[in-house]
């Protein structure tokens, strides 16, 4: 009987990243998908800064940047004229090595992940469907339908449902999926086009007629259009062709369509599963939460789920942690998913609302306020921090403790950079490690050496203070580069107690 450590259902970005991370950590995975080939049409475009930071651990960030497109600015149009331009090329400068908006379409993204996974000897099993599964003592027994129609029974220690909004894993677990569906129908089209809005920047039409966003893709004149389908056309959304949609917004933005490469309509849902875990089965990505595309958060959140779960599964499977470490996956990720759905819901409702007041806000107030906000570094920084997911934190949760400087346990480690280098270099290795900014004790050095816990001591520099890091204390970092302990002293017993209380033995990690 085929047995793996982790059986992954669904080979979108979430499932592929989970498989990649686990493979890097020496865990045996199987990944299957009911489709016969990777997607060629995709909706997710933005790869946020936090995702790029984490991708650095897999040598992926440079490839994404090289293959994708960096967006220099967002432009807002009213009545056929551009009224505001928000520069994006250095919007998060000083906060992250990836202080920009990166566009890399999901289909190309998936191909890159598949290629990297194959380097570990793992292939996606296509045309293969999960029919049912049950938990049996020390694992999961799953029944699969193979490409030839035959059935296969296989076993795994854990099962990961990365199988989208209609997840068979979630339905089998009988977990509620509360939320709703927005009434608006959207269309998405990849086009070859020309005109002022095809200058490699992002363009948004704020008119009352139709909502339209033009997202630049890598390559001359390539763009993704996302717009609303209004009036009576919405009743026939399933049979609509590109020729049927209203051209008002397209004409407002002076977009000359030369070729439509693909076209689709869809409704937007906003839902979060009641639970992200039941026993040995987990829900990730769209199987766990779906929300509006506002801010390009969906795919990045699914990838965040995968990375959060991967190191914990690897630790438990390799004897580096007690099984209850896995309880923290739901605690940490469900809180963020709920907050995200509420936030994107508000933005989405503003952008797509109909009526005189909504039109007035969008057409009069927004064009006036946006440039003003853009001119303030603090508002620009706030926007970037939120959208880029670098402020996502696990404060006050079971794996997070302490405060040192402005950094709390549960925060992402702040990036500090100056002419002498940065503090992210050591993060490439996805393992527990200790950072000290300034001086530390002989006891700390001896203890870390004895327990094979990497210790990085940085000479104190103004850049560290500017980033909010505390001097002469220490930060214990998790394998996903979030801060586990922020401490002002340099007593290794604090680390020893932390690991003992949580049943973690990082010195036995597979890596």
UniProtKB/TrEMBL annotation:
Instruction: Name its co-factor(s).
Output: FAD
Q: Which InterPro entries match?
A: FAD-bd (IPR002938), FAD/NAD-bd_sf (IPR036188), RIFMO-like (IPR050641)
Sorted alphabetically, which Gene3D superfamilies does this protein's record hold?
3.30.70.2450, FAD/NAD(P)-binding domain
Signal peptide (from-to) = none
* UniProtKB keywords: FAD, Flavoprotein, Monooxygenase, Oxidoreductase
Note the superkingdom of the native organism.
Bacteria
Any GO MF annotation of the entry: monooxygenase activity
Ranges where the FAD-binding domain occurs: 4-343
Protein's UniProt name: FAD-dependent monooxygenase
- Source species of the chain: Pseudomonas hormoni
């Amino acid at each position: 009987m085929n047995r793996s450590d982790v059986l992954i259902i669904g080979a979108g970005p979430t499932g592929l990243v989970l498989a990649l991370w686990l493979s890097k950590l020496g865990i045996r995975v199987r990944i299957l998908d009911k489709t016969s080939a990777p997607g060629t049409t995709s909706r997710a475009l933005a790869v946020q800064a936090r995702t790029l930071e984490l991708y650095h651990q897999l040598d992926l960030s440079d490839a994404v940047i090289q293959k994708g497109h960096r967006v220099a600015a967002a432009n807002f149009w009213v009545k056929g004229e551009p009224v505001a331009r928000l520069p994006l090329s250095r919007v998060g400068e000083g906060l992250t090595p990836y202080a920009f908006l990166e566009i890399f379409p999901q289909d190309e993204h998936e191909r890159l992940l598949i290629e990297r996974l194959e380097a570990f000897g793992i292939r996606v099993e296509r045309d293969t469907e999960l029919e049912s599964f049950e938990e049996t003592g020390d694992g999961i027994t799953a029944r699969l339908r193979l490409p030839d129609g035959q059935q296969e029974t296989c076993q795994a220690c854990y099962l990961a449902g990365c199988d989208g909004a209609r997840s068979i894993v979630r339905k089998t677990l009988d977990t509620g999926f509360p939320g709703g569906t927005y009434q608006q129908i959207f269309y998405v089209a990849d086009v070859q086009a020309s005109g002022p809005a095809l200058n490699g920047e992002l363009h948004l039409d704020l008119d009352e007629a139709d909502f339209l966003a033009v997202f630049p893709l890598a390559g001359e004149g390539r763009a993704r259009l996302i717009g609303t389908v209004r009036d009576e056309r919405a009743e026939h959304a399933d049979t609509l062709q590109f020729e049927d949609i209203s051209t008002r917004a397209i004409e407002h933005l002076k977009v000359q369509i030369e070729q439509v490469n693909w076209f689709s309509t869809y409704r937007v849902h906003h839902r979060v599963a009641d639970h992200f875990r039941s026993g040995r089965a987990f829900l990730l990505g769209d199987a766990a939460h779906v929300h509006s595309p506002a801010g390009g958060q969906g795919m990045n959140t699914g990838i965040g789920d995968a990375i959060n779960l991967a190191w914990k599964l690897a630790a438990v499977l390799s004897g580096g942690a007690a099984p209850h470490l896995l309880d923290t996956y739901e605690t940490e990720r469900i809180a963020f998913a709920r907050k995200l759905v509420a936030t994107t819901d508000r933005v989405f409702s503003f952008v797509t609302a109909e009526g005189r007041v909504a039109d007035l806000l969008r057409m009069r107030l927004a064009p006036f306020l946006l440039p003003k906000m853009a001119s303030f570094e603090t508002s620009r920084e706030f926007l970037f921090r939120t959208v880029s997911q670098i402020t996502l934190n696990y404060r006050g949760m079971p794996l997070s403790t302490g405060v040192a400087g402005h950094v709390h346990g549960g925060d992402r480690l702040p990036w500090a950079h100056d002419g002498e280098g940065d503090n992210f270099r050591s993060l490439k290795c996805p393992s527990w490690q200790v950072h000290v900014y300034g001086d530390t004790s002989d006891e700390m050095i001896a203890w870390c050496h004895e327990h094979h816990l990497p210790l990085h001591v940085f000479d104190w520099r103004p850049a560290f203070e500017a980033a909010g890091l505390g001097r002469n204390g220490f930060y214990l970092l998790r394998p996903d580069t979030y801060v586990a302990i922020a401490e002002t002293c340099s007593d290794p017993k604090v680390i020893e107690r932390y690991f003992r209380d949580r049943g973690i033995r990082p010195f036995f990690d597979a890596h």
